[in-house]
Q: What sequence folds into this?
């Protein structure tokens, strides 16, 4: 277990460092800058701004300053939201994005595993076929299509749920965004669970359990499910990446004040510090999540603890 | 297999329609018909209606499909080149080089792709060329893994040993003997890469970071439709439906082909 973790850390740390350095260098290589406005600034102001933001230093010194600041949790001032530091924006937006993502992950896991179990328990019958076709559809439909569709049907036509804003974390405001975000991930989890169960059900220990006369439901839940969840665990890393990415678009569709929306605004307006901060932060989160997924993986399948 | 064939057939239909329909229409995708702003479907002259500024939706949807498919094909080609080259070299060289190259792939797998592509868009301007180069540059990882695995297995086969004994160089063996044997698997994974690429492109365009107006794509049309859905739901449903159809057909066809070659 410890060697597995150490080996993963040995990849994760250089990856993180590479992300920070590369994204910083790319940012500086880019043509155009945040002060390119409609009206040309006079040279003195331009020079003062450049100096104030440290843009006149050599590149390696800029990186050094940037990393030192990152270590203190200081992402610098936002260039577009003038009265806020990037850290303020992250502090405001990240909890919203994370709760959205965590809720969606929970919904996707429950829905996906349950559907996978249902399909596996009716293996070979038409329900199995229909469920799996449905899950393929779910994975193929992007959340920026399901989001507006759900809003159209449940918000505008039936009028059950609000379709815009955070409402101070009110569950009604969160229902549609969470569902829209969860559906593609649920589809993928259902397919993995179904495939995992198909393999697990053919293994010796499951045959033994059957031969002992255990009820089919007991065999499925107590003996087959755990090994079947191994592929699901290894999917958790990509799932987290998918959810954070999906949250960007879902926050835009449902007007939620999460970090994803600031990120899109930052990207459209070339707000370097904001975009850098979000990319760095999300890369870090996803690397952490992959590590956690590896631990779960080892717990589910003792053979790979090594 | 029947489902796969139906999916491929539908895809061919969509591609043909996207190529053939726009030149036949009286309205171009960016022409404004001032007399028919927000026309409902089945209006005279606009079979699918018009959008909020009076542009013909049939023309726009077909043009959007064309751009989306073209970007997808180009991006998939980029990812194909990088993925096959990377995987073939890693698999062929083996040993430490293989280890290092695959470590890079593992590391990149852990990154949030979409954010990397957006970073590239922010940096180098939002041009259509960069949209597909950027997407291609992040979507090659699975292809590299698959190709590497296949090359590792193929390298031990007698016909490769024979070619080596006959004095063929590494480049010649890879291009002449190994790559032709990969064709089936590569095509299957290429089909599965295309929906990913379509998804990324329309995601970016939806956010305003991909294809730029006046050019259009299905992502942009879904965004416009979503902004206007309270008064004209068909403006969302038509491009959204076509996008979903393309994605679903590509996924089903790709999965069928993959299962066939993986077995």
A:
């Amino acid at each position: 277990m410890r060697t597995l973790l150490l080996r993963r850390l040995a990849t994760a740390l250089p990856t993180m460092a590479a992300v920070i350095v590369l994204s910083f260098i790319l940012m500086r290589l880019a043509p155009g800058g945040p002060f390119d406005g409609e009206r040309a600034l006079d040279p003195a102001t331009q020079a003062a701004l450049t100096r104030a933001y440290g843009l006149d230093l050599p590149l390696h010194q800029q990186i050094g300053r940037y990393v030192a600041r990152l270590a203190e949790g200081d992402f610098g001032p936002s260039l577009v939201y003038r009265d806020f530091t990037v850290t303020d924006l992250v502090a405001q937006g990240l909890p919203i994005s994370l709760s959205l993502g965590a809720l969606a992950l929970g919904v996707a896991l429950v829905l996906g595993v349950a559907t996978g179990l249902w399909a596996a328990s009716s293996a070979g019958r038409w329900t199995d076929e229909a469920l799996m076709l449905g899950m393929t559809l779910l994975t193929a439909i992007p959340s920026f299509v399901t989001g507006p569709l759900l809003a159209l049907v449940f918000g505008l036509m039936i009028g059950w749920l609000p379709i815009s804003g955070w409402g101070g974390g009110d569950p009604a405001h969160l229902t549609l965004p969470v569902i829209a975000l969860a559906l593609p991930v649920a589809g993928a989890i259902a397919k993995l669970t179904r495939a995992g169960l198909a393999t697990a059900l053919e293994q010796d220990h499951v045959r033994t359990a059957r031969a002992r006369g255990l009820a089919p439901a007991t065999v499925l839940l107590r003996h087959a499910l755990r090994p079947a969840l191994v592929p699901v665990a290894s999917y958790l890393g990509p799932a987290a990446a998918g959810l954070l990415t999906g949250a960007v678009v879902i926050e835009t569709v449902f007007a939620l004040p999460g970090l994803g929306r600031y990120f899109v605004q930052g990207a459209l307006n070339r707000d370097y510090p904001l975009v850098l901060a979000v990319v760095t932060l999300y890369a870090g989160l996803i690397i952490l999540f992959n590590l956690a997924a590896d631990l779960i993986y080892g717990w589910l399948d003792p053979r790979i603890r090594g | 297999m029947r489902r796969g064939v139906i999916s491929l057939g539908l895809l061919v239909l969509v591609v043909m329609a996207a190529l053939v329909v726009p030149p036949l229409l009286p309205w171009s995708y960016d022409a404004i018909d001032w007399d028919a702003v927000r026309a409902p479907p089945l209006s005279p002259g606009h079979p699918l209606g018009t959008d909020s500024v009076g542009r013909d939706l049939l023309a726009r949807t077909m043009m959007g499909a064309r751009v989306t498919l073209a970007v997808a094909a180009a991006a998939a080609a980029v990812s194909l080149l990088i993925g096959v080259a990377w995987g073939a070299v890693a698999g062929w060289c083996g040993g430490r080089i293989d280890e290092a190259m695959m470590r890079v792939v593992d590391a990149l797998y852990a990154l949030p792709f979409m954010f990397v592509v957006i970073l590239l868009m922010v940096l180098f301007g939002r041009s259509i060329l960069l949209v597909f180069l950027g997407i291609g540059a992040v979507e090659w990882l699975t292809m590299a893994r698959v190709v590497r695995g296949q090359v590792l297995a193929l390298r031990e086969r007698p016909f490769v040993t024979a070619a080596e004994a006959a004095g063929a160089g590494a480049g010649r063996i890879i291009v002449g003997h190994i790559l032709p044997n990969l064709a089936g698997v590569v095509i299957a994974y290429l089909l599965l890469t295309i929906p990913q690429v379509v998804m990324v492109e329309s995601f970016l365009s939806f956010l305003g970071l991909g294809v730029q107006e006046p050019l259009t794509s299905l992502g942009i049309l879904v965004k416009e439709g979503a902004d206007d859905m309270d008064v004209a739901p068909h403006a969302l449903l038509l491009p959204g439906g076509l996008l979903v159809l393309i994605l679903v057909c590509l996924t089903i066809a790709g999965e069928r082909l993959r299962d066939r070659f993986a077995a």
Q: What stands out?
A: The radius of gyration of chain B is 22 Å. Residues 170-207 of chain B form the longest helix (38 residues).
